[in-house]
Request: fold
Amino acid sequence: MGYVAPVKNETAVQYGSRMVENEPAVARVAKVQATELPPIRDEDERNAYRREEEMYLMSKRREIEQKLYGKGKQLDLEA
Reply:
């Protein structure tokens, strides 16, 4: 073969002379909390007409408020 002259490998020299860090360069990010769903009550799950009942109660409340305070959906345009 022949004589091979010694050549410095710059990459190997830089890799060997680097300083090893004890801590990572990028700081860890805290974990995101897992979402918690509110518990489902048995009565809500079983009652298919719960929404209609709530709407009925709300309409009754509005009627009572209109009678008590004289305010509501009807507008007095002449006032």
User: Anything to note?
Assistant: The mean pLDDT is 79. Residues 4 and 10 are 17 Å apart (CA to CA). DSSP finds three helices and no strands in the chain. Residues 50-69 form the longest helix (20 residues).
